[in-house]
Amino acid sequence: MIGAEWRKISPLHQIRPEMPPTLIFHGDKDSVAPFPTLTAFCQKMSESKNVCELVLETGGVHGHINNDMKLFDNAANQTITFLSKQQLGTTSGEDTLVGVNYFAGWWKELPNKWHGQGWNINQPDWRPKFPGRVPLLGEYNTQATMDLEIEAASSHGVDFFAILYYFPQPGARQAKHAPMLNRGLETFLASPNADKMKFCIEYCNAPDFSARNEKEWSDCVKVWVAAMKHPSYLRVDGRLVFKVHGISQFLKTHNHDYKLCRKRLDALRNAVRGAGLGEMIIGVGVAGQTPPLGRGWPPAELFDFTATYMCVPDIKTQETEYPYATLAQQARTTLKNRVADPIPWMPYLAAGWNPRPWTYPKAPPHYQRFFKFPTGKEFTDELKAMKEALEKHPSLGLPKRDGTRRKIFTIYAWNEFGEGGIVAPTKGRGTMMLDSIKHVFGGDNR
Amino acid sequence: MRKSLHIKRVQFGCGGSAGGHVALGTALFDSVEHADEELDVSCKPNALVLLFSSLYSTPHLKDTVTR
Fold it and tell me: Do A83 and B51 lie within an 8 Å CB cutoff?
């Protein structure tokens, strides 16, 4: 039946360069499609410079994946990761990706952040004074809260949460708070709704939460790589997106030694490669007031992009509230300053800034400036302006391998209930902020 | 039916056992086409996922994976 032309339909004999990237699941005890052929196949694939990844199951027989639910689930996840790395799934144009910063600062144990800036448990709970800020989907970062939040965000056009990660630096004043601050990441990873949207990690490298040496950095890397194995980890053009919160502190922690900075970042990139997760794009936070960066901005050697978490305008401190427009204007000015930078910038939009519950007499100036929360129309207008800006300026967004950008931005923030950056539904404003996002960017999560 | 096809390229091919052989065939067997095959649309996938697949053929049917 096959006869003399059998070689034509023998994959082993037809392997050539430029074959599609291939992922193989196989058991070494497979007697139907025997293991020695597999070895020869993989070797020929690599000789022809084809991408060929093998997941070999020791003791696995023919059909091994079908007979074991755990193997099947693992294979499904590995397949998603593999396909994500191959630049697939970007067929129908590229909609703008909408991200919202996630700050898991809300635990029940005292002292907590519902009790004043100083975390002084003698200060009263501020929720009764600011009922409008109380979140509707859960007042503490529990699993139930996260499950509902993913549901709400994903059904209103939010594509990903940029989740703040805090390193529990040994001996630091806030060391015991770090694990609680990381409940955002933990509950996302454990959520049955996690497949509804994406997430990425923003390493919040404030002094108390910075990894200061090789050991601490490698402790962080372990946690991050484990999270990046999740199929919902955000990728742009197949590459994992990761951000270091602030450039100044990152340089300071590493004594402004660029070689050391590079060594740390390379250790992360290599760990990610070693885990079979492919390549990363690593960004770093720059302050919104930073003037346009010159050609030779040194950190551009270290990072793939810059981003801004939030920027409070440098204006006179005063008791009365400025209009939201003043806050929005700062984001627009920042965007203009970044357009010609020598490194891509991921824009931000402010959902609000009003740290009234957290301010105190000698607070730093940015904690003594307050802005009215946006109306639905004001926020919608800013979202529309962002959409237009991303279309108008091809230099904005995250870098793709062909030199173009992926349209993407972040909103400050999902749940900064104390500082006043609030997209999450609240008793005061319901789903108003989410409705604006849905209106401008659509509710169909890809 | 044909007009409703907007696919420019198959996203990825996946198959188990003999199905993996078929998936590989879409990427490899250029000289093997059905008489009615729609050749305007390439069947070459962008990626392959092979589950315990048959990876070679021999001249003898009895040696070839048939399951």
Answer: no
For residues A131 and A257, give the distance between their C-alpha atoms in angstroms, rounded to a whole number: 47
Q: Do residues A265 and A215 touch, judged by C-beta distance below 8 A?
A: no
Interhelix angle for A143-154 vs A183-190, to 10°? 70
Instruction: Say whether A398 sits in a helix, a strand or coil.
Output: strand
Q: Rounded to an integer, what distance in angstroms lies between the CA atom of residue A402 and that of residue A89?
A: 16
The count of CB pairs under 8 A between chains A and B is 118
Look up the domain containing A55 and give its range.
3-85
A69 with A192, same domain: the answer is no
Residue range A25-36: mean pLDDT, rounded: 87
Report angle CA A381, A384, A390 to the nearest 5 degrees: 140
Distance from CA of A188 to the nearest CA of B (A): 28
Give the confidence band of B1 by pLDDT, cuts at 50, 70, 90: very low
Which ipTM score applies to this complex?
0.77
**Between helices A214-228 and A258-274, what is the axis angle to 10°?**
40
- Surface of A (23-62) touching B: CB under 8 A: 23-27, 30, 32-33, 37-38, 41, 60, 62
Task: Name the residue in chain A with its Cα closest to that of B21.
Answer: A11
Judged by CB atoms closer than 8 Å, whether chains meet at A62 and B51 is answered as no
Are both A46 and A105 inside the same structural domain? no
Domain-embedded: residue A446: no
Q: Which residue among A36, A63, A85 closes a domain?
A: A85
Range in A40-44, A414-418, B8-12 the model is least confident about = B8-12
Angle between helices A324-338 and A376-392 (to 10 degrees): 10
**B→A interface, C-beta within 8 Å:** 11-14, 16-17, 20-21, 24-25, 27-29, 31-32, 44-59, 61, 64-65, 67
Helices A432-441 and A376-392: angle between axes, nearest 10 degrees: 30
Total-model pTM: 0.77
Q: Are residues A312 and A219 part of one domain?
A: yes
Task: Tell whether A58 and A114 lie within a shared domain.
Answer: no
Q: Which of A39, A56, A85 is the last residue of a domain?
A: A85
**Residues on chain B touching A89 (C-beta within 8 angstroms):** 11
A-chain CB neighbours of B12 within 8 Å are 20, 83, 86, 88
A98 with A437: CB under 8 angstroms? Answer: yes
Q: Do B46 and A89 touch (CB under 8 A)?
A: no
Q: Answer yes or no: is A90 within a domain.
A: no
